[in-house]
Amino acid sequence: MNAVMNPVQEQTACACADQPQTERAYVMPEVNIYETQEGYVLEADMPGVSKEGLEITLEGNELTLVGRRQPVKTAEGEPLYRESNRADFRRAFELDPAIDTTRISAAINQGVLVMTLPKAEQVKPRKITVS
Amino acid sequence: MSLIRYQKPEINWGLSPLRRAFNLREDLDQVFDRLFQFPLDPTRDNQFMGGWTPALDLYEDKENLTVKAEIPGMKKEDIEVTLHENLLTISGERKEERKDKGGTCRTERFYGRFQRTFSLPTPVSADKITAAYQDGVLTVVLPKAEEARPKQIPVNVN
Question: Does residue B144 contact residue B133 with C-beta atoms inside 8 Å?
């Protein structure tokens, strides 16, 4: 009973989970996560990553985002100055159990990944009419 | 009693203490990475003040200088590229487009104005500069001025 009465904001959101990183170094993309009536929205900055370079996996309750950058074309010539990081993006999140994992959707537009994580119907707030 | 701005606590009660320690380490790593990667670059400082300093790359080949800037999530009309003498400036504004203001769990991405200016190592022909924006990366190709291109000088044998 108590769990149902809790404000939505107090439920476990998408918290970041760490995993041992093996073969290569990754960088963490910067993310915004916010909650709506329908569920959660996650936005991640992944410049240089196209649709083909994205790999999103869901294992149990853990969502892993991997974004591989396009290999640099040699046509650009000698690098004189470089600030960008060559490593691919990777970040893992622990999902709120209320999320309906079968309806998660993702889109990438100009290097920003937007994921919509809808909540299951039974946990959505709804009005009960008094008869 | 000190008066500090209220910050929403991170919502990660569901995690074990070990996980939380890992997260803290990751966050600290990020701060130190940024601090030590470019210690002498004053433009980097404003990252700690909440600004945005997009990463820039500069490449050179025989014909062109190529500048790449990582500015994901921009609109074409919000990007500005200007050349004044040999100073190239890339500026713009990333606007927040979210309409539904729900509860925020994490805000790491930056919204607002940014600007980066740097001097080009060689003269370029200003009227032939092209810029393209794809996958959140702006690529500016600056053809070198005629006098800056390498020239082959034929050797005559008498």
Answer: no
**Count of CB atoms situated within 10 Å of the CB of B119:** 8
Rounded to 5 degrees, φ, ψ at A86 are: -80, -15
Integer Cα distance of B110 and B54 in angstroms? 10
**A 45-84 residues inside an 8 A Cβ radius of B:** 45-50, 70, 75-84
A93 reaches B (C-beta below 8 A): no
* pTM of the entire predicted model: 0.70
Closest chain B C-alpha to A60 CA, distance in angstroms: 15
Residue A127 near chain B (CB below 8 Å): no
> What digits encode the pLDDT tens for the residues A78-129?
888 888 888 899 999 988 888 898 999 999 999 999 999 998 887 777 788 8
Contact B80, B91 (CB under 8 A): yes
Q: Calculate how close chain B gets to A78, using CA atoms only, in Å.
A: 5
Give chain B positions within 8 Å (CB) of A8. Answer: 103
Residues from chain A contacting residue B105 (CB–CB below 8 Å): 13-14, 33-35, 40
Question: Given CB atoms, is A34 within the 8 Å cutoff of chain B?
Answer: yes
Secondary structure string (H, E, C) spanning chain B: CCCCCCCCCCCCCCCCHHHHHHHHHHHHHHHHHHHHHCCCCHHHHHHCCCCCCCCEEEEECCCEEEEEEECCCCCHHHEEEEEECCEEEEEEEECCCCCCCCEEEEECCCCEEEEEEEECCCCECHHHCEEEEECCEEEEEEEECHHHCCCCCCCCCC
ipTM: 0.73
